[in-house]
């Protein structure tokens, strides 16, 4: 129920209604510009994202976020659909269900369950292309314009509904008022037009970006079979938007006319997918699953499987075993032709790979340093971080790990200098601000500690808490006039933002 409503409101589900492809796109007109500007749309998206970032299911993992961002912008860069002024942000939600959603202002969320369910990078790219098409065609703006803002006032509750739907249909339904149910059926035709347009454009985006267009029908056909054989546990995707044989046949016919294209999965995709599997469910269950697959040789790439196994072991606090497996992984990388992109890795030396696979090399280095830290080998970990950061200076996971290790080893001043340098390039990283706050706490600077903590709350969408932290900072004046003036200016800025938000909600 709630996911149907979300689809109708946002017009941006991943559930592709593959009906009746026409040679010309439906003429929907650009009514959105008359009632909803790009700025207003972005502000709505930011309001929803503040709700989502504050939810425990929001997956604030820099490596997963970087991969999704790189994939998304690769699709966008190879498309003529996106305008110069359009912004996009891709993020993951820790949720085993197969789903994704797009929000106002170009924000797109992908459940971990969907990424894991995608058996190839082209399948994941197919879903993402469809979502991108919804954004570029301003489907949400058109929906809001059509409804004359009737639903805009409830935008925050809709964000809650999105998150509640991940765990319980009953829980999410409780959020809805009964009067909303009567609107659903009357708007189905409108959203089908959106889906039809997004399907056409999404497939073209997928093809132009160099991915296998067969990824789209293959993914949906597999989900359909899952729903057929597991009626009670079918993907939420299918429960709210059933896929018919006719729909799949339509897109199969369309892709059949396209040239055959075999596209290998990037090592980045494989590693991110393995990491998500390691983060799914109970830690000991994840360990057991990876161990069984390795013992039974049920994997496509042994190096990737062992990478996931080590991640699961670290999560299960089996540091010594993780170190043993890391050495096995290093040995494997010297001989495994399927992992040739990482074949130059030698224990203690950085992986140097070509730019298009930069995430993979950085992920391996981060894993190695994390294992060393977990085993108390601080000096070796520091050396690994320092060498890796010279090769991958903007890899946030490395930055977080290095700063955290410095703090744990009572080197707050060194950590602070490093963090401040990183924040010159990465200004919206809540985790870095949190580490900065820890440094100031250890150095005894209460004013700057609360100033940094205010930025943590701000980037997580908690304006009120951020304002309280800045007020506390002013009460702990350290005597630095310039720092004090900066805090006062920031306080006024956040108070204005909070006031504007409260006005928009009335």
List the helices and strands and how they pair.
Blueprint: H1 2-10, H2 32-35, H3 38-53, E1 58-59, H4 62-77, E2 89-93, E3 100-103, E4 107-111, H5 112-117, H6 121-136, H7 139-147, H8 155-164, H9 169-173, H10 178-184, H11 188-208, H12 215-229, H13 236-240, H14 245-256, H15 267-279, H16 283-295, H17 302-315, H18 319-333, H19 358-374, H20 378-391, H21 396-408, H22 412-422, H23 430-443, H24 446-459, H25 463-475, H26 481-505
Parallel strand pairs: 2-4
Antiparallel strand pairs: 1-2, 3-4
Q: Number of DSSP strands?
A: 4
Oligomerization: single chain
Largest sheet: 4 strands, mixed
Task: Spell the H/E element sequence.
Answer: HHHEHEEEHHHHHHHHHHHHHHHHHHHHHH
Mean pLDDT: 79
Ends apart, CA distance between termini: 27 Å
Rough shape? flat
Q: How large is the count of helical segments?
A: 26
Question: What is the structural class?
Answer: mainly alpha
**Biggest sheet, strands in spatial order?**
1-2-4-3
State Rg: 24 Å
């Amino acid at each position: 129920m709630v996911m149907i409503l979300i689809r109708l409101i946002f017009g941006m589900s991943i559930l592709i209604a593959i009906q009746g492809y026409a040679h010309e796109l439906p003429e929907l007109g650009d009514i959105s510009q008359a009632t909803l500007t790009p700025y207003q749309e972005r502000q709505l998206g930011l309001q929803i994202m503040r709700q989502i970032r504050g939810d425990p299911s929001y997956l604030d993992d820099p490596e997963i976020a970087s991969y999704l961002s790189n994939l998304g912008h690769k699709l966008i860069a190879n498309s003529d659909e996106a305008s110069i002024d359009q912004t996009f942000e891709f993020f993951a939600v820790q949720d085993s269900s197969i789903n994704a959603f797009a929000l106002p202002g170009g924000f797109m969320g992908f459940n971990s369950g969907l990424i894991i369910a995608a058996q190839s990078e082209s399948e994941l790219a197919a879903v993402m292309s469809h979502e991108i098409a919804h954004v570029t065609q301003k489907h949400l703006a058109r929906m809001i314009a059509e409804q004359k803002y009737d639903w805009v006032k409830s935008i925050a509750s809709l964000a809650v509904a999105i998150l509640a739907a991940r765990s319980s249909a009953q829980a999410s339904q409780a959020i809805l008022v009964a009067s909303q149910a009567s609107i659903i059926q009357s708007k189905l035709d409108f959203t089908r037009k959106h889906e039809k347009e997004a399907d056409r454009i999404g497939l073209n985006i997928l093809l132009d970006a160099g991915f296998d267009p067969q990824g789209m029908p293959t993914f949906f056909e597999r989900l359909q079979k899952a729903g057929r054989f597991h009626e009670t546990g079918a993907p939420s995707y299918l429960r709210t938007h059933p896929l018919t044989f006719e729909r799949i046949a339509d897109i199969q016919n369309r892709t059949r006319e396209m040239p055959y294209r075999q596209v290998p999965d990037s090592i980045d995709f494989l590693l991110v997918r393995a990491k998500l599997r390691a983060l799914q469910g109970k830690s000991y269950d994840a360990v057991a699953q990876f161990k069984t697959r390795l013992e039974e040789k049920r994997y496509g790439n042994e190096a990737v499987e062992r990478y996931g196994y080590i991640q699961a072991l670290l999560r299960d606090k089996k540091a010594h075993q993780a170190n043993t497996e890391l050495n096995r992984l290093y040995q494997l990388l010297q001989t495994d032709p399927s992992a040739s992109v990482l074949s130059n890795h030698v224990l203690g030396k950085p992986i140097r790979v070509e730019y298009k696979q930069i995430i993979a090399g950085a992920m391996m280095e981060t894993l190695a340093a994390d294992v060393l830290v977990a085993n108390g080998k601080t000096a070796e970990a520091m050396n690994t971080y320092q060498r890796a950061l010279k090769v991958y200076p903007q890899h946030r996971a490395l930055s977080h790990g290095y700063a955290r290790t410095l703090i744990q080893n009572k080197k707050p001043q060194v950590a602070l200098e490093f963090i401040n340098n990183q924040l010159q390039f990465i200004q919206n990283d809540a985790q870095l601000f949190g580490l900065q706050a820890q440094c100031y706490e250890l150095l005894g600077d209460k004013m700057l500690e609360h100033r940094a903590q205010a930025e943590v709350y701000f980037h997580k969408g908690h304006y009120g808490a951020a304002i309280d932290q800045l007020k506390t900072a002013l009460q702990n004046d350290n005597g630095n006039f310039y720092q004090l003036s900066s805090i006062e200016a920031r306080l006024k800025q956040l108070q204005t933002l909070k006031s504007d938000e409260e006005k928009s909600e009335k």
